[in-house]
Structure formats: C-alpha cells, structure tokens
Amino acid sequence: MAVKLHLDTEFCSMTIAPSSSDKPRILDGKRTANAITAEVREAVEREGLTPGLAVVLVGDDPASQVYVRNKGRRAKACGFLSRQYDLPATTTQAELLALVESLNGDSKIHGILVQLPLPAQIDADCVIQAIAPDKDVDGFHYVNVGRLVTGAIGAALLPCTPKGVMHLIEQALGPDLSGKRAVVIGRSNIVGKPMASLLLAHNATVTVIHSRTPSPAEICRQADIVVAAVGVPGLVTAEWVKPGAVVIDVGINRVEDDDGSAQLVGDVDFEVVAPLASAITPVPGGVGPMTIAMLMHNTLQAARRQVAVST
Ligand SMILES: Nc1nc(=O)c2c([nH]1)NC[C@@H]1CN(c3ccc(C(=O)N[C@@H](CCC(=O)O)C(=O)O)cc3)C=[N+]21
Ligand SMILES: [Mg+2]
Question: Where would one find coiled-coil regions in this protein (predicted)?
Fold first, then answer.
C-alpha cells in the first residue's frame, strides 16, 4: 500500500525526474528548502493565517545562537509571528517548565521549539514532554513519536530532519519505496529512529546499523538508500556504498582543515562516494537547510490545525 505522506500535495509538484546519465545527481537542499519556504509563505498569505513560532534558547552556546537566529529569520520570511526567548545558562527546570506552560496556553503561538542541547541541570526529556503535542513542531513528544511509529502519520508532527530527508529521497526515487532496501546509520531519537519509521511507512525494507553492529560496511553495501546520521566525519567510504545508491548525509561535523581553518563535513566521504551514487546530498547545503524548511512547514501545519479546532 502506498502511503500518502507527510507533505501536502502542493509540495509534490517539485519532484524532479531522476538523472538519466551516470553522473551523480546532487540533491540541492538549499534550493529545495528555499522553494518550500516560498510555498509556505504563499500558503500563509492565501489562507490568511499568522502561524506563531516560539524558539527557546537556554544559555549562550554560539552554535545554538546561530541556529536559533536562522530559524527566526526563516519564520519571518514565511510571514510568521516569530518570538525568541533567551534564558540564562543558570535557568532552573522549574523556570523553563513555567515558560513552556505559558506558551502552551498562548493562542498566538502554534509551535514551540526548545533548542537542544540544554544545560546539565535541566532534564531535556521532561521539558519536551511538557510541550503540548500539537505545538511540538520538533516532533519529539511521545504522542508524535507514537503517531509516527504506528503509521498515523497524517496526525503527527514529524521530526524536521527525517521529514526533510524523506523529501530529498522522494526527489530521487518518488514516494513509494516498495522493493528498496534502506540502511540508516545511527539510532538517535531525533534522527535515526524516526528516520527508520518514516522509511518503513514508505514501504522500504529498513535496517538500522550502529556502533555495536558487526560488519557495518557489508550491510550498508546492500542498500539502495543510505542515510548516515552518526556524527563520525567521513565514516561512509566507497566500500560502504553499492553503485547507484541514493546517499543522504545528515552529519554536521566541525573539523579542522589542513590549514587549520574550521570546516563543516558530513558522515560521508563525499569525494569518493559521489561518483558511485545515483544521487547524493552535500554538506553544507543538503539536509541542514531542509531541517529548517520542515520546521516552517510543521509550524504552518500546527497553525492550520489549531485554527481549525478553535473556529
Ligand atoms: N530542538 C531542536 N531542534 C532542532 O532541530 C535542532 C536542535 N534542537 N538543536 C541543534 C540541531 C541542529 N540543527 C540544524 C539545523 C539546520 C542546520 C543547517 O542549516 N545547516 C547548514 C549549515 C549551517 C552551518 O554552516 O553551520 C547546512 O547544512 O547547509 C544545521 C543543524 C537543528 N537542531
Ligand atoms: Mg547539510
């Protein structure tokens, strides 16, 4: 059974035909993310909605500050109400829970994102579970996880990174992955596990490999679709990839270049794997921008549902 999935039909018009040559197709996440953002903006105008997104940042980690600022910019570009809450690194769990509670009750706010990681004195899971499930635009609440795993995908808010990855896979292979073998490398709650569930919902035959898996390259080499999400720079080399596979790189690793400058690299050794792949995502400019675009799409979806309920 083909499952009608996470994105509205309006986004399906963007599916691009697979390349006919043996040159690998670079799946351009930046371009796709820009197109999705434009469609979200149009939908906001057409429907006369003002989705509200609250992003909560605790502490002053510079990387988190950059991400949060980018999310706010994108939200404004979509015509959303965008609010950012900056809390000190010394914030207590009770204070953070009180803010989440007030946002749960705020009818102007349809999506709540608490930026991770959180300082050590705060129990991140407890905070995530305090977010109203229908405002959980990260898709991390147990209710949304449960919806995804049971196949109630239409009711779920899906985690942004797996949802963005699925969109890129759809560009290469279409939405029905019947007969395809997918290997997910990594088993985190924010990428690996929901990614496996989403691929399964699209009828792929899914294997998850991780740090305790013997002969991972041998298993990965069977895959028509590889999603790498472990945070090990350049882990996936030529021996891991079957010629013609679709390779998605979720890794965002900051490493030092030969000349000592900082560089962003993925979990895939792009230089050696790209010539083998039928389609591949770059880092940067692949999955990362899609994550933010899907956050915008989730916030639109959340707003639509909350407005429908209240009218
Ligand atoms: N509650 C929560 N939700 C998140 O979704 C969440 C989070 N916490 N904590 C941190 C991670 C990380 N994350 C990224 C989003 C976009 C890029 C992105 O746009 N990357 C660009 C490059 C950015 C750069 O240069 O650093 C790219 O890959 O092209 C990266 C990483 C969301 N996260
Ligand atoms: Mg990327």
Answer: none
Ligand 1 contacts CB of residue 159 (under 6 A) = no
Residue 1: pLDDT band by 50, 70, 90 thresholds? very low
Helix 62-77 and helix 29-47, axial crossing angle in degrees, nearest 10: 50
Give the tens place of pLDDT for each residue, 284-295. 999 999 999 999
Q: Residues 6 or more apart from 211 whose CB is under 8 A from it?
A: 230
For the question of residue 115 being annotated catalytic, the response is: yes
22 Cα–ligand 1 center, Å: 31
Domain ranges of the chain: 48-147, 158-288
Report the predicted TM-score, pTM, of the whole model to 2 decimal places: 0.93
Using an 8 Å Cβ cutoff, are 40 and 75 in contact? Answer: no
pLDDT in tens, 244-260: 999 999 999 999 988 89
pLDDT on residue 296: 98
Helix (H, G, I), strand (E, B) or coil at 226: strand
Choosing from 28, 134, 136, 138, the catalytic residue is 138
The reply to whether CATH 3.40.50.10860 applies to domain 48-147 is yes
Closest Cα to residue 53, out of 86, 87, 76? 76
Q: What is this model's ipTM?
A: 0.96
Expressed in angstroms and rounded, the spacing between residue 284 Cα and the centre of ligand 2 is 4
The conformation of residue 153, written as its DSSP 8-state character, comes to: G
Q: Is 99 in the pocket of ligand 1 (CB under 6 A)?
A: no
Q: What is the pLDDT of residue 22?
A: 64
Whether 258 sits among the annotated catalytic residues: the reply is no
Q: Which residues are annotated as a binding site for NADP(+)?
A: 186-188, 252
Q: Is 73 in the pocket of ligand 1 (CB under 6 A)?
A: no
Nearest CA to ligand 1 atom 15: 288
Q: Nearest 5°: phi and psi at 182? A: -115, 135
Classify domain 158-288 at the CATH topology level: Rossmann fold (3.40.50)
